[in-house]
Design a protein that fits this description.
The protein is built from 14 helices and no strands. It has helices at 4-24, 43-49, 52-84, 90-97, 99-102, 105-115, 122-129, 143-171, 175-183, 188-199, 201-216, 220-225, 237-247, 251-283.
């Protein structure tokens, strides 16, 4: 009985919308107030997997996910090592580093949209002043450069979160291990690859899974920064679903797309829980 209020909230916020979306995906719903909703079975799903635009959005999503996750992991590792070093005012640096992650994603997207602006963007102004480019460039003007701009914006925001995950792992490594390695004559580079990196594998695994799930369903950054353009070149799977469901009002088809996304996230979540359970068993 004590858990009943929480169970009702969880059901209402999570399970009911997912169940409702699953049900709608088997019907043809082409209006917010439909007169009829004919049952079409799995036709929406067959249309999805036969749609070239769907596979293109999957490819763009994978490109964004892999690119942003790898960069965030590499930069986050370097940032975590720096924040873990015995330097003065370390607490101040940690507070400053967390600021990009604390910004709402919509604000982050609007800020980077100004940075990449072709007419008055600060990036063009900086590169021109440094004589690295001779004319202002349309950073959001081509699908490839626009997608890379999305990755840069996401990396800037999320790297601090990755760094703090890894910093927690670094602080769990006993300092005596490093002292023993130094006595054996190992340098900093060898200590990193022999001690730090192997002991951080559990933290790295969790970060990779969490960031992969989060990057796979990116929407708000795309919505604010590029709007899916140019020429639909930055439409990720989540944004593609939004366009199909709300812009084109194909609610049944959009619900099927949303169900596919949920299935993918469930698979990634299962992997995450399996890794987490393995790490818990190794601590026993």
């Amino acid at each position: 009985m004590l858990l009943l209020p929480s169970a009702v909230i969880v059901f209402g916020v999570i399970f009911y919308p997912v169940l409702r979306t699953l049900i709608i995906s088997f019907f043809e719903v082409n209006s917010a107030v439909p007169i009829t909703t004919p049952f079409v079975g799995v036709r929406n799903y067959s249309d999805i997997f036969g749609n070239a635009d769907f596979w293109s959005s999957i490819g763009r999503t994978l490109y964004f996910t892999i690119g942003s996750t790898v960069l965030e992991l590499v930069l986050g590792m370097g940032l975590a090592l720096l924040l873990n070093a015995p330097i003065k005012l370390r607490w101040l640096f940690r507070a400053i580093v967390v600021l990009p992650w604390a910004l709402p994603t919509v604000v982050n997207g609007a800020m980077w949209k100004g940075v990449f602006n072709a007419q008055y963007g600060s990036l063009n102004a900086l590169l021109t002043q440094l004589h690295l480019i001779h004319a202002y460039k349309l950073w959001l003007g081509t699908p490839h450069s626009a997608m890379n701009s999305l990755i840069i914006a996401d990396v800037w925001k999320t790297t601090p979160l990755v760094a703090f995950f890894l910093l927690a792992g670094l602080q769990g490594i006993p300092s005596e291990i490093y002292e023993s390695v130094r006595v054996d004559g190992a340098g900093s580079v060898r200590a990193f690859f022999s001690i730090t990196l192997p002991l951080l594998i559990p933290s790295i695994s969790i970060v990779l899974i969490l960031r992969t799930i989060d990057a796979f369903k990116v929407f708000d950054l795309v919505y604010v920064l590029t709007g899916g353009g140019p020429a639909d070149g930055t439409q990720t799977i989540a944004y593609f679903t939004y366009v199909q469901a709300f812009s084109d009002q194909r609610f049944g088809y959009g619900s099927a797309l949303a169900t596919v996304i949920v299935a993918c996230i469930l698979v990634l979540s299962a992997i995450y829980l399996r890794l987490l359970r393995r790490d818990e068993m190794s601590l026993l």
